[in-house]
Amino acid sequence: MFSLRFDIGCHVDYKATMGEALYPSGPWTGFYTYSPSDKHRMDLNLEFHEGSIVGDGIDDVGRFLVRGSYDAAEGECRWVKTYPGSHNVYYRGFREGKGIWGTWDIELGAAGHGGFHIWPKSMSDADCRQEHQTEPVAVSNPEIAPANRPIAPKPSFR
After folding, report:
1. CA 75/CA 44 separation, integer angstroms
2. Residue-by-residue DSSP string for 81-126
3. What is the per-residue pLDDT for 132?
4. Which of 12, 49, 66, 133 has its CA 20 to 30 Å from the CA of residue 84?
């Protein structure tokens, strides 16, 4: 694990400190899937504190509770989504980019599984989708344009 030591004897665990910042407590949103084209929205209120995750939420199945853990240094998290009086769903994911991505499994009658992606609600859906889209960028300074790429004309603001 990478850490910094200062001459004054103060020890700072850089990787863990930065990792903790990636798990903001509060409202999160996202979806779970049964297949890539079968998305189901979920809204969560999550509290991340010293490696523990607690919270609650709602999706198209109903209200649920969340209890689990996360490793800020490794970016991994695991939790159980419990529908009170019904069943549990087991989640495992990794904090990457603009959210937590991973898989879920259920053992209710026939076993089921799928994927999920959640992100802090303070990030808009557009921010999250932008992560997967690439758009051409117009270069307005000919000195930094690649030699084999034409320079885009400057827009007219009339």
Report:
1. 19
2. EE-TTS-EEEEEEEEETTEEEEEEEEEESEEEEEEEEEEETTS-HH
3. 42
4. 49
Give per-residue pLDDT as tens, 82-129.
999 999 999 999 999 889 999 999 976 666 899 999 999 987 544 544
Burial class of 68 by CB neighbour count within 10 A (0 to 12, 13 to 18, 19+) = buried
Q: Which residues of 82-95 are buried (b: 16+ CB within 10 A; e: fewer)?
A: beeeeeebebebeb
Burial of residue 45, with CB atoms counted within 10 A of its CB: 0-12 exposed, 13-18 middle, 19 or more buried: middle
- The residue that leads in pLDDT, 140 or 28, is 28
pTM of the complete model: 0.67
| Structure tokens belonging to residue 77 | 């998290």
CA atoms in the 13 A half-sphere facing the CB of 125 = 5
